[in-house]
């Protein structure tokens, strides 16, 4: 450091002394600065993506918890519904449960009905649509004792006896048109109870192939069941439905529901044992042996060549058109609607 020569010696000495004193401090400061890392901006916090909230929906069944609903319960027991972003509340039903009205009114998002019930409901302004048809062949029929020697459903009406069935059902009126009821006494259906059948050898009753015949067999009664498809009446049964308005407003939810149901039925058909045990806890009146027999009896009615080609739950325009024409002939509906207005299926 250089200073003008004019500075007095005392001043110059003082300044030089101060500079000498300050120099080590400055050097130390420079050393500290050189070894200190400059502060950096912290990295942004990346939050883990949150799972989408499950959509809460309700599914109303039209009967008690039994194997005919096995694939629907799989989704609840195994998490299949949640996998498809759904939280499904399953509501068991019983005789006369108005599921189609519940769906149409928006009380529940989804329900189980038969195809003929859906067509009649649409006739009365209930804009519901089918999404998935569990039973490709209708499991409804008439059960008789094998000791009567009948070989066709017509034999029931050409021999004296009692027939318990709902006379207002479309197939009951088709039976009356085809065979007449002159030889038989038609009484109301007992709704699954086989007491009268057990006590009267000449008693025939309306049944679900996977239910009452198995109860009768367990009671030691040899039976034969004639399905109503024998007279050409074969509506899809255990059909998943929703309102058209709900479908249009929530297409992703409906798509997820169908996917979950199809996946559930595949799993149930492959191995119903675990699901049967869980369903049986909700319907202890049916034992596990009957659950297993019912699951086995219904399988050929659920899987056929059509489902092998189109997938479980498949529906076709031809089947809907044929059914609608039958109901129009019976005057249950005024005219047959367009098939595409009644159901939704990717292949249609």
Defining traits:
10 strands, 41% helix, five-stranded mixed sheet, globular, alpha/beta, single chain, disordered N terminus, 348 residues
Structure notes:
The protein is α/β, with parallel strands linked by helices and 348 residues long. The chain is built from 14 helices and ten strands. It has helices spanning 9-34, 70-78, 80-83, 99-104, 115-123, 170-179, 195-199, 212-218, 244-249, 251-270, 273-280, 288-302, 305-310, 317-329; strands at 55-60, 86-91, 110-113, 128-135, 140-145, 161-164, 184-187, 203-208, 223-227, 237-243. The strands form two sheets. The protein has a five-stranded mixed β-sheet with strand order 2-1-3-10-4. A five-stranded mixed β-sheet has the order 7-6-8-5-9. 37% of the residues are buried.
| DSSP, total strands | 10
Mean pLDDT: 88
Number of helices: 14
By helix and strand content, what is the structural category? alpha/beta
Cα radius of gyration in angstroms: 37 Å
Characterize the largest beta sheet: strand count, sense, and whether it forms a barrel.
5 strands, mixed
Q: Report strand order across the widest sheet.
A: 2-1-3-10-4
Proportion in β-strands: 15-25%
How far from one another are the termini?
97 Å
Portion in helices: 40-55%
Apparent shape: globular
Helix and strand pattern: HEHHEHEHEEEHEHEHEEHHHHHH
Uncertain stretches of 5 or more adjacent residues: 1-29, 31-39, 43-50
């Amino acid at each position: 450091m250089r200073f003008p020569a004019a500075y007095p010696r005392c001043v110059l000495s003082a300044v030089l002394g101060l500079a000498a004193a300050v120099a080590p401090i400055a050097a130390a400061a420079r050393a500290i600065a050189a070894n200190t890392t400059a502060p950096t901006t912290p990295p942004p916090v990346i939050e883990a993506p949150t799972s989408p909230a499950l959509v809460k929906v309700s599914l109303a069944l039209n009967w008690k918890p039994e194997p005919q609903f096995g694939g629907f319960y799989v989704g609840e027991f195994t998490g299949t519904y949640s996998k498809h972003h759904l939280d499904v509340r399953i509501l068991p039903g019983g005789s006369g449960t108005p599921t189609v009205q519940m769906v149409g009114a928006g009380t529940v998002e989804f329900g189980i009905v038969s195809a003929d019930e859906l067509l009649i409901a649409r006739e009365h302004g209930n804009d519901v649509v089918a999404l998935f048809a569990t039973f490709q062949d209708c499991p409804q029929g008439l059960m008789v004792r094998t000791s009567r020697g009948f070989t066709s459903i017509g034999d029931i009406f050409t021999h004296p006896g009692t027939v318990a069935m709902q006379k207002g059902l479309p197939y009951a009126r088709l039976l009356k048109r085809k065979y007449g009821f002159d030889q038989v006494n038609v009484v109301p259906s007992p709704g699954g109870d086989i007491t009268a059948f057990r006590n009267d050898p000449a008693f025939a009753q309306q049944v679900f192939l996977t239910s009452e015949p198995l109860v009768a067999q367990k009671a030691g009664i040899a039976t034969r069941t004639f399905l109503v498809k024998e007279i050409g009446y074969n509506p899809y049964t255990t059909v998943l439905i929703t309102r058209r308005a709900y479908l249009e407003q929530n297409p992703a939810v409906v798509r997820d529901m169908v996917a979950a149901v199809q996946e559930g039925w595949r799993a149930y058909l492959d191995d119903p044992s675990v699901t049967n045990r869980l369903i049986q806890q909700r319907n202890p009146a049916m034992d596990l042996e009957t659950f297993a027999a019912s699951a086995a009896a219904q399988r050929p009615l659920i899987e056929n060549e059509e489902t092998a080609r189109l997938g479980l739950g498949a529906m076709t325009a031809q089947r809907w058109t044929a059914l609608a024409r039958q109901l129009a002939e019976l005057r249950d509906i005024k005219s047959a609607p367009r098939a595409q207005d009644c159901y939704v299926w990717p292949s249609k």
